[in-house]
């Protein structure tokens, strides 16, 4: 009896320790009913999202507080959320900011400084960004002009590419610092695309790399590829978003794959877990536009994930989930993004 009680207490402690470090980052683009639906959410739907967070006592904090806590191994309350926007569209100022202010929720906007300096009409100018920053918004780096950062130019060497992208990132960071006075070294990858080389460069520059593939984050996350849950367009439906808001990060001790941008098709991913609050028999992965992935457990805590058939060229994902043992309505969630190139 005492042995059973000991194991029950031990399991409870392990479950809690695996969960309290987790958080979710949301990604938005437009708050508008007149712009492309795939990257937009209406003001009414956006208000419903924030109302759900408020009514269910979510801990909505600035992105820098979330990242700092995870990096330092500090305890975060369960249901911790950070809200982010990509591109700095005018409707973020006109529509999103007033709604966020009503809820008193902090948020981050990732901007493209060269497009702002060129006076592009669809993005906020520095005056609006400065105004929002004074009200508590974080303004951070989305590259100079939203290029595919991992793609090399024709006849460009690896060394030349590295110099060009380093200049792009540091120029953008300097312009934000000059105009807004903030210097958060967070880079949201344009289009959510990155490869091993880009991740290494971002890390060498002392930046945190942030994607737009799904999943929760915790202290064991790779800080050169933090995931975010897209919450616009098809992904704005509250009934499915609720599952993501309440999701948790797997405790992944090792992730092995050739590259996120790859000619390997189908690609293969190997995940090594610190097992705890989920049964491996309930672990499942799904492949974009394909269906269920093939799983091969090569040890008690390591699984190989493969698509049963080749993926289409371009962006794709493996989405892996498992229900929590402690709270079966909650799910652990991990996503691996791919960009499949012609061989």
What does this molecule look like?
It is a single chain. The protein has helices at residues 2-19, 43-55, 63-71, 90-103, 113-117, 126-134, 158-180, 196-204, 238-245; strands at residues 24-28, 30-31, 40-41, 59-60, 80-86, 108-111, 138-141, 186-188, 208-210, 229-230, 252-256, 261-262, 268-273, 284-287, 291-292, 294-299, 302-306, 314-323, 331-340. It is an alpha/beta fold. It folds into 2 domains: 22-246, Glycoside hydrolase/deacetylase (TIM Barrel, Alpha-Beta Barrel); 253-340, Immunoglobulin-like. Strands 1, 4, 5, 6, 7 and 10 form a 6-stranded parallel beta sheet that branches. A 5-stranded mixed beta sheet has the order 12-19-18-14-15, with no helix packed on it. Strands 11-13-17-16 form a 4-stranded antiparallel beta sheet, with no helix packed on it. The longest helix is centred in the middle third of the chain and has 23 residues, at 158-180. It starts with a helix and ends with a strand.
CATH fold-level name of the largest domain:
TIM Barrel
Distinct helical segment count: 9
Beta strand count:
19
The amount of helix comes to 25-40%
Taking pLDDT < 50 over at least 5 consecutive residues as the criterion, the unreliable ranges are 1-20
**Rg, nearest Å:** 20 Å
Overall geometry comes to: globular
Overall structural domain count: 2
Helix-strand makeup class:
alpha/beta
């Amino acid at each position: 009896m005492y042995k059973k009680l000991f194991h029950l207490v031990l399991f409870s402690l392990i479950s809690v320790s695996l969960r309290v470090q987790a958080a979710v980052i949301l990604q938005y683009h437009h708050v508008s009913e007149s712009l492309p639906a795939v990257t937009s959410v209406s003001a009414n739907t956006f208000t419903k999202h924030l109302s759900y967070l408020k009514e269910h006592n979510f801990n909505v904090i600035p992105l820098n507080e979330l990242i700092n806590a995870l990096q330092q191994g500090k305890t975060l309350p369960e249901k911790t959320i950070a809200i982010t926007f990509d591109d700095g569209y005018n409707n973020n100022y006109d529509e999103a900011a007033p709604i966020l202010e009503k809820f008193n929720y902090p948020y981050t906007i990732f901007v493209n400084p060269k497009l702002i300096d060129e006076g592009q009409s669809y993005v906020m100018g520095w005056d609006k960004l400065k105004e929002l920053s004074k009200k508590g918004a974080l303004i951070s780096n989305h590259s100079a002009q939203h290029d595919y950062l991992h793609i090399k130019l024709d006849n460009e060497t690896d060394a030349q590419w590295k110099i060009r992208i380093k200049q792009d990132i540091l120029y953008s960071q300097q312009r934000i610092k000059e105009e807004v006075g903030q210097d958060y070294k967070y880079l949201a990858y344009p289009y959510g695309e990155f490869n091993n080389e880009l991740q290494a460069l971002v890390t060498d520059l002392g930046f945190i790399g942030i994607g737009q593939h799904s999943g929760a984050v915790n202290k064991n996350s790779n800080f050169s590829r933090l995931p975010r849950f897209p919450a616009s367009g098809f992904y704005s439906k509250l009934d499915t978003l609720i599952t993501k808001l309440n999701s948790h990060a797997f405790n992944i001790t090792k992730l092995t794959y050739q590259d996120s941008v790859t000619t390997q098709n189908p690609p293969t991913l190997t995940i090594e877990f610190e097992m705890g609050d989920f049964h491996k028999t309930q672990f499942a992965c799904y492949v974009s536009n394909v269906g269920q992935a093939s799983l091969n457990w090569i040890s008690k805590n390591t699984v190989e994930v493969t698509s049963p058939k080749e993926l289409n060229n371009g962006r794709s994902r493996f989405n892996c989930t498992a229900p929590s043992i402690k709270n079966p309505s909650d799910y652990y969630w991990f996503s691996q993004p791919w960009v499949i190139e012609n061989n």
